[in-house]
Design a protein that fits this description.
With 318 residues, this protein is an alpha+beta fold. The protein contains 12 helices and 12 strands. It has helices at 2-18, 25-31, 33-36, 41-57, 90-102, 109-121, 129-135, 149-158, 229-240, 258-263, 285-290, 302-317; strands at 23-24, 63-66, 72-75, 162-166, 175-187, 190-197, 202-207, 211-217, 246-253, 266-271, 274-281, 296-300. The strands form 3 sheets. It has a 5-stranded antiparallel beta sheet. The chain has a 4-stranded antiparallel beta sheet with strand order 10-11-9-12. A 3-stranded antiparallel beta sheet has the order 1-3-2. Strand 2 (63-66) and strand 3 (72-75) form a beta hairpin. The longest helix has 17 residues, at 2-18.
Length: 318
């Protein structure tokens, strides 16, 4: 069955590429043996529409043209289906291959893999085997589990305003936010959206795991200027806690909280299964500490301790 379909797709592609004028469904049915064997017009139409979609998915640009008699015809112009010369070197090809692996957990996996195959077919060199051998123990991945990721990614790309319900860690109920999305950034295994909050008239960062319900697109253009990439990244890092401006002192259970230990500038054993850590921090450390639950106790500063307690109370209230 797979061979028969591949042959049918190949024949359809050759017909569409080899014609100088649009071919109607009737003409295509009379030219391709598999279509002639279709039991009925409905069966042929379903087969043809699936084949046409499959070819487009593979990258073939199929034009739809209506003639003077109102009949629809199809053709694939050669100038629209010819890639320019690929000038990537081996290192650039290796980088693209690594990028394709990164997305294997997301819905982008199929698109990334397909794009890589098309580039290789057009002459892109294969990645060096030595690179694979040296890094085979590492598996680069960016986890994407939030349903909001794909619509927000497309909205960032197309510069479309969005609306979604967002629940802050300290709030019992979500609030509706109207946002002009700028970019998505992954930090410490979590995805963040940076953008312009229209209701607050200010730049804001949102954690995707706290977006509830669907992300809805809105018509219209952005009302605030989009900053350069470096500025956005710095904002995401700052809101997520990357930019350290102070030092916190916490108690941490022994053999727990390894990400916290990796950031600690000092560790002291307290006994009874507890250690004391000093951690540089900025905005967002309270939300991160809450994730460790009863394994962490904030000693100082007092405002950080109060923020963590407020977040835990909000979680307990549901």
């Amino acid at each position: 069955m797979a061979i028969a379909k591949a042959e049918r797709l190949m024949n359809l592609a050759l017909c569409l590429l080899g014609t100088r004028r649009p071919l109607s469904k009737r003409e295509l049915r009379g030219s391709i043996e598999a279509y002639l064997e279709a039991g009925s017009d409905d069966s042929f139409n379903r087969m043809f529409e699936r084949d046409k979609d499959d070819l487009r998915e593979l990258g073939l640009v199929i034009a739809t043209v209506e003639n003077l008699d109102g009949e629809t015809g199809y053709l694939a112009r050669r100038d629209s289906n010819r890639l320019p010369p690929i000038t990537l070197d081996a290192e650039e090809a290796a980088a693209l291959g690594l990028a394709a692996k990164v997305w294997q957990q997301a819905r982008l996996a199929g698109a990334a893999s397909g794009a890589l195959q098309k580039l290789r077919a057009a002459g892109m060199p294969e990645a060096e085997d030595a690179y694979e051998a040296q890094h085979s123990a590492l598996e680069p991945r960016i986890p994407v589990h939030e349903t909001a990721f794909e619509p927000l990614m497309l909205a960032c790309r197309d510069r479309r305003p969005v609306v979604f319900d967002y629940r802050k860690s300290t709030a019992a109920r979500p609030e509706t936010r109207q946002v002009e999305p700028w970019t998505l950034e992954c930090w410490r295994g979590h995805w963040y959206l940076a953008g312009w909050d229209r209701d607050r008239g200010a730049e804001r960062v949102f954690r995707l795991s706290r977006i509830t319900g669907k992300v809805r697109s809105r018509q219209g253009s952005f009302t605030a200027p989009v900053p350069d990439v470096v500025t956005v990244r710095e904002t995401v890092e700052s809101w997520a806690g990357e930019t350290a401006t102070r030092t916190a002192r916490i108690k941490l259970r022994t053999d727990a909280g390894y990400p916290l230990r990796a950031r600690a500038t000092a560790v002291r054993e307290l006994g009874d299964g507890w250690d004391e850590l000093e951690i540089p921090y900025g905005h967002g450390l309270d939300a991160w500490l809450v994730e460790f639950g009863p394994d962490v106790v904030v000693l100082e500063p007092a405002d950080l301790r109060a923020d963590v307690v407020d977040r835990l109370r909000a979680v307990a209230k549901g």
